[in-house]
């Protein structure tokens, strides 16, 4: 009896083992079949790559695609690697320090490391330039943000900023190239104001923020003060000064005065004066007197002697017409009333020479000197009325041609 029971027990154990093996094999087979079916019906896997893990050709394609897409988030360790442990400094200021670096494939970059985790500036730059792509705007490749640091990764521009050529005794740019730089920068700002889905006000247009690539193609940069605005809003609420003294529009000095995108137009007008003069607008004399170049331009225009002024600034006869045209555009841009200033698309047209520029009214000699009464007295004029004063669509040559056709 005991022998029979032992045999039965052994058989039961053996049957259990065989059954377990069968179940295990069946599950493995079913899992394999399911995996094969999933692979057969699943869409192709996306080719997601990371810039620091791929070879040079793939990185180059990645960076080209990146120019039209969202910026990449890098880690602090990757930023350290890109900059070779922050070994080469390009510049510094109140915002922080800019370091030179490069991606693994050799593409050069400029890394701006912000001071004191300036979250407002960080969000301003990511939220504005990170949404845009234009040949005359600095390209943002990516950023880094953690408890240790905030950094922005930009394309590297070999020739630095415009100010070092306008205000230097050792480096200079010829007039023809300065004229091209003015038009390119104007196109970049016009894109921010008029072509983006949400209007972007830069708030700090100046030569130091116009960067130049290897061919001196201008690109507007430094969006640390920039703001996105809905197109339906006619003005922006500003609680403090924005910009750099000498380039800020006069309305910033007034309490409760509406600030519009035309504050950038004023700043650009001040830049145009410096491009024409190839000098700073304000120079202190030996007796502490102020040599204010915009006033000199107006005085010469009022006398009908803009040609004399351009000649004194070393501009050749063949380039005088373009220089005089730029001077008139500058005078229009720095009008006291924001509504009297042309939009940047009109500025581009006037600089390019396809229209006849109308004589500008007299602006203030110094920023803020007009005061509240001057600005408000001009603000009431409609923008449609002001528009008719900037330029005529037909040039004198076209008008002469039209008259000849009419007499046939």
Automatic annotation (TrEMBL):
SUPFAM superfamilies: Protein kinase-like (PK-like) (SSF56112)
Signal peptide: none
Record flagged with keyword Transmembrane: yes
Gene3D superfamilies, A to Z: Phosphorylase Kinase, domain 1, Transferase(Phosphotransferase) domain 1
Residue ranges annotated for the Protein kinase domain, each copy included: 84-369
Membrane topology summary: Single-pass membrane protein
Organism domain of life: Eukaryota
The entry's keywords: ATP-binding, Kinase, Membrane, Nucleotide-binding, Serine/threonine-protein kinase, Signal, Transferase, Transmembrane, Transmembrane helix
Binding residues for ATP: 112
GO cellular component, one term: membrane
InterPro entries: Kinase-like_dom_sf (IPR011009), Prot_kinase_dom (IPR000719), Protein_kinase_ATP_BS (IPR017441), Ser-Thr/Tyr_kinase_cat_dom (IPR001245), Ser/Thr_kinase_AS (IPR008271)
Subcellular location field: Membrane
GO molecular function terms noted in the UniProt entry: ATP binding; protein serine/threonine kinase activity
Segments passing through the bilayer: 6-26
Main location: membrane
Family, as annotated: Belongs to the protein kinase superfamily.
Protein name per the record: Protein kinase domain-containing protein
Organism from which the protein derives: Escallonia rubra
